[in-house]
Amino acid sequence: MEENSLGGSKYLLLIVDEASGCMKGFCLRAKSESEDCIKTYIMKVQKQFGKKVKFVRHDGAREFATNSLKDFYEDEGIEQQTTVPYAHQTNGTAERAIRTIVTIGRSMLHHAKLDKRFWAEAAMTAIYVKNRLPPSRV
């Protein structure tokens, strides 16, 4: 984001479950934090629902393609799918979700006349609200 959040975060990691459309957001100070967030999220989902994550799709950014993450995916039997770099349309589900969350968050900040440093709180609130709406796809 353009400005650090109140908590010092600079990045938003958004994970979208393609099966349910449910989203999970993580506010990060550094991109390197994304690896632990992804691992924690996958383990939590697998324990809560008793189902294995079958694949992870990402844009091939360095923080998503570490050797440690590759080993984790292999150990968990998760297929890693990498989309074409710099072609956001090939990762449409995630890109659309990011755009939606950022738009809703900015609208909330503008309407409430809040400073940009509240972006993380606005994004997490947008995710919370969006997860409680019925899915638009059938």
Report a brief summary of the structure.
This is Integrase catalytic domain-containing protein. By secondary structure, the protein is an alpha+beta fold. It is built from 4 helices and 4 strands; from the N terminus they run ββαβαβαα.
What labels describe this entry?
RNaseH-like_sf, two-stranded antiparallel ribbon, 138 residues, two-stranded parallel ribbon, globular, 14% strand, 4 strands, Integrase catalytic domain-containing protein, alpha+beta, Retrotran_Ty1/copia-like, nucleic acid binding
Give an overview in words.
By secondary structure, the chain is of the alpha+beta class. The protein has a domain at 11-49 and 88-131. It is 43% helix and 14% strand. The protein contains four helices and four strands, in the order ββαβαβαα. The strands form two sheets. The chain has a two-stranded antiparallel sheet with strand order 1-2. Strand 1 (11-16) and strand 2 (23-28) form a beta hairpin. The longest helix has 21 residues, at 92-112. The radius of gyration is 15 Å and the shape is globular. One of its GO terms (biological process) is DNA integration. This is Integrase catalytic domain-containing protein. InterPro entries: Integrase_cat-core, Retrotran_Ty1/copia-like, RNaseH-like_sf, RNaseH_sf. Residues 1-138 form the Integrase catalytic domain.
